[in-house]
Every structure is written in C-alpha cells, then in structure tokens.
Amino acid sequence: MSPITERLMAATDLPGVMDRRRLNYNFLLQAFGDNPLLKDIGTPMRTDLPEGVSPLVFPIRVKEGRRDLLRRELTSCRVFCPVHWPLPSEICELEYPEACQLSRQILGLPIDQRYGEDDMQSLIKRLIQAWEQVR
Length: 135
Description:
Blueprint: H1 3-10, H2 14-34, H3 36-41, E1 42-44, E2 57-62, H4 67-76, H5 97-105, E3 106-110, H6 117-134
Antiparallel strand pairs: 1-2, 2-3
C-alpha cells in the first residue's frame, strides 16, 4: 500500500462505512419490496444481506431489456450507475446464455456511504422518473 493510501485508510471509519452501506442497501431492498413502481423496473439480485457483508452497490436486474436506456437516463439526472459485469466479446452466448442475459440486465444502484436516507429517497424518485422516460 502506498503511504497516501495508508493515511487515507487510517483516517476512514471503516465500520461506519460498512454500516452506512448496509443501511442504504436495506433501505432500497425494503423499497423494492414495498413499491410496485420499483418492482416494475426490476428485481434485486439478492433479497438478503448476510451479516458482515459490505455491499458495493445495490444490484438489480432491469426488466424488458431496458438496462442501457435506463442507465443513460439516470446519467442525465446525475445518477451514475456502474455496470460491473460486462462480458468480453469472446464469451459465446450460445454456450453461456444465462451469463450473457444477466450481463445485459444487471445494474448497480449507488449506495455509497456518503449517502443518507434522503439521498436514497431521491435515488428512488429519480429511478422511477427515468423509467417513465424509457418505457
């Protein structure tokens, strides 16, 4: 680790980071379970969050083949959702159809530790608005 990285890590409240990410993840998980508009957009990849896990994003499978359209619309609203699992072109879709389908559907919603409950509410609102634009 570089000295700069060591200083940054020493100054970071890692348990606090983990707690906030878990809170944000569980907030979105609850919202996807309760809100029919969110259920229309996609389904969470996991319906639980095991103890000790600190999630990077809240991954969903976007319905109707609209992941890329939704992602572009969210980007225009200043919500940046990474695609973490793009497959290389060498992967044969006939050999791995499930992996290819998942790769085209999955979208990571941001749950960064800098975000609180108001930010998660705003994300939900923007997600619903973006979905309305791409439908």
